[in-house]
Amino acid sequence: MEQHIYPIFDKMLARADKEKLLGQRGLMIWFTGLSGSGKSTIAIALERELHRRGILCRILDGDNIRSGINNNLGFTEADRVENIRRIAEVAKLFVDTGIVTLAAFISPNNDIREMAARIIGKDDFLEVYVSTPLEECERRDVKGLYAKARRGEIKNFTGITAPFEAPAHPALTLDTSVLSLEESVNRLLELVLPKIGR
Length: 198
Fold this sequence. Notes:
- By secondary structure, this protein is of the alpha/beta class.
- 44% of the residues lie in helices and 13% in strands.
- The chain is built from 8 helices and 5 strands; from the N terminus they run αβαβααβαβααβα.
- The chain has a 5-stranded parallel sheet with strand order 2-3-1-4-5, sandwiched between helices.
């Protein structure tokens, strides 16, 4: 077999090369909280604000993950763990490319979030707890899921028939029952911008 004359060209570019090209540092912002707490709403607003500042972002949430890469998974305990594992592996690829990645998932316990942090890399992982109380989430009931869970139509629904374990040491806690969307985004910007390098 003929040996390649220029083996250096077979090597992939390093993360630092991509971050230099983008002029930003890759980072994972992992939003956790109950259904209806405001995770996706905050992530979308933050993405728009970072985009306005010239920062490349990617949102991962239930809608774009469950309809694609994880469309073969259900909601058993094993499937929930695999769901988060795959999300973390995909997120790591984005972060290693220098992209600020925003993940909005209930991810109901510390073990599952710890697994995600390990896969992505703890130095690149910011856990944001959207701590909106259950009563407020249920009042909003954006997708009608709480009503179905109360009627017994959805089994193992987090906050009703399945537990949610609050993060022990989140990088930031946001309660959307007391903070406006703008206030939440501003607090995130204070946390995130220095880490992105902008």
